[in-house]
């Protein structure tokens, strides 16, 4: 399905991002798997190569808040593979904590990773996509960006910003044949949700219409569809992947 295409995935070393890399590789894309450190990215790549030694992929480790590091990674990906067809800006952290316990530094950190990470990814890859005739940028957002949540305020604020970027850049970059779309997953088994106690997990699952957590593989296909030509008319929107839940 993605033969000849190159996908660049931030937050690819674990959870949803790892599942996305696996899905693209299974569908014959070449992949740049990015993690917050080179060690994390290398370990994830080793795991995927163990699964299938013929996968074509490269590990890169950097902080998505660092614009120069993102630029360098995008440049290197173009040096290696000649193009970037799909950018998945997926790296993120949760902003857990009660409002009264929040500090400005923590608020800034969550916004930095989740929102500036998406700006940096889009801003560095868009000229590459424009020059090659087009591409697709997919950002991992969240329904919480639309509805908020009961604590951890920086998280929904950051995701509301990501939804704003998707809506704006989808319209602004369409003339360059670049689509910008989002996915709003929820209740996905990952490092981010592993910290929840079994009681909280059970409560959250019971409040979801589908009643359970899902695996990264169960949402990765949505990214594949959105990255494909079949989704050409889908632009400037976030597609919820929450089983009907608002979280
Ligand atoms: N798990 C869920 O239910 C859920 C729900 C809604 C949205 N999301 C979003 O999905 C995305 C992936 O999260 P996940 O659930 O797979 O969790 P995860 O913790 O397994 O993955 C997060 C990834 O982001 C990377 N990352 C974190 N900080 C970084 C930084 N400063 N620089 C570079 N990379 C960094 C990590 O290395 C990791 O690869 C996030 O954007 C998250 O907000 C997850």
SSE blueprint and pairings:
Layout: E1 6-9, H1 15-26, E2 30-35, H2 38-51, E3 57-61, H3 67-81, E4 86-89, H4 104-132, E5 135-140, H5 144-147, H6 154-173, E6 178-185, H7 191-194, H8 198-206, H9 216-227, E7 238-241
Parallel strand pairs: 1-2, 1-4, 2-3, 4-5, 5-6, 6-7
Helix pairs in contact: 1-9, 3-4, 4-6
The structure holds nicotinamide-adenine-dinucleotide.
Residues 10-11, 13-17, 35-36, 40, 63-65, 90-93, 113, 140, 142, 185-188, 190-193 line the site of nicotinamide-adenine-dinucleotide.
3D structure, described in words:
This protein is α/β, with parallel strands linked by helices. It has a single domain (about 5-240), classed as NAD(P)-binding Rossmann-like Domain (Rossmann fold, 3-Layer(aba) Sandwich), CATH 3.40.50. The chain is built from nine helices and seven strands, in the order E-H-E-H-E-H-E-H-E-H-H-E-H-H-H-E. The chain has helices spanning about 15-25, 40-50, 65-80, 105-130, 145, 155-175, 190-195, 200-205, 215-225; strands at about 5-10, 30-35, 55-60, 85-90, 135-140, 180-185, 240. It has a seven-stranded parallel beta sheet with strand order 3-2-1-4-5-6-7, sandwiched between helices. Helix 2 (about 40-50) links the parallel strand 2 (about 30-35) and strand 3. Helix 3 (about 65-80) runs parallel beside helix 4 (about 105-130) and helix 4 (about 105-130) runs parallel beside helix 6 (about 155-175). The longest helix has 29 residues, at about 105-130. The radius of gyration is 17 Å and the shape is globular. The protein starts with 5 loop residues before the first strand and ends in a 6-residue tail after the last strand. The model has no long low-confidence stretch (mean pLDDT about 95). The protein binds nicotinamide-adenine-dinucleotide (NAD).
């Amino acid at each position: 399905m993605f033969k000849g295409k190159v996908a660049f995935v931030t937050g690819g070393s674990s959870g949803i991002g790892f599942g996305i890399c696996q899905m693209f590789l299974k569908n014959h894309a070449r992949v740049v798997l990015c993690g917050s450190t080179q060690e994390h990215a290398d370990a994830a790549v080793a795991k995927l190569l163990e699964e299938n030694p013929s996968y074509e992929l490269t590990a890169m480790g950097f902080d998505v808040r660092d614009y120069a590091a993102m630029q360098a990674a995008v440049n290197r990906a173009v040096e290696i593979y000649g193009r970037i067809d799909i950018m998945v800006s997926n790296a993120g952290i949760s902003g857990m904590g009660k409002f009264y316990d929040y500090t400005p530094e923590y608020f800034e950190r969550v916004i930095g990773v989740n929102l500036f990470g998406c700006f940096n990814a889009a801003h560095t890859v868009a000229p590459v996509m424009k020059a090659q005739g087009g591409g697709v940028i997919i950002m991992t957002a969240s329904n919480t960006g639309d509805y908020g949540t009961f604590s951890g305020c920086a998280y929904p604020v950051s995701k509301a910003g990501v939804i704003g970027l998707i809506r704006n850049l989808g319209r602004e970059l369409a003339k360059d044949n670049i689509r910008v779309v989002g996915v709003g997953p929820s209740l996905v088994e990952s490092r981010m949700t592993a910290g929840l106690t079994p009681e909280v997990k059970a409560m959250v699952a019971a409040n979801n219409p589908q009643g359970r957590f899902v695996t990264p593989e169960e949402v990765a296909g949505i990214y594949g569809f959105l990255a494909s030509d079949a989704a050409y008319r889908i632009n400037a929107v976030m597609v919820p992947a929450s089983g009907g839940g608002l979280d």
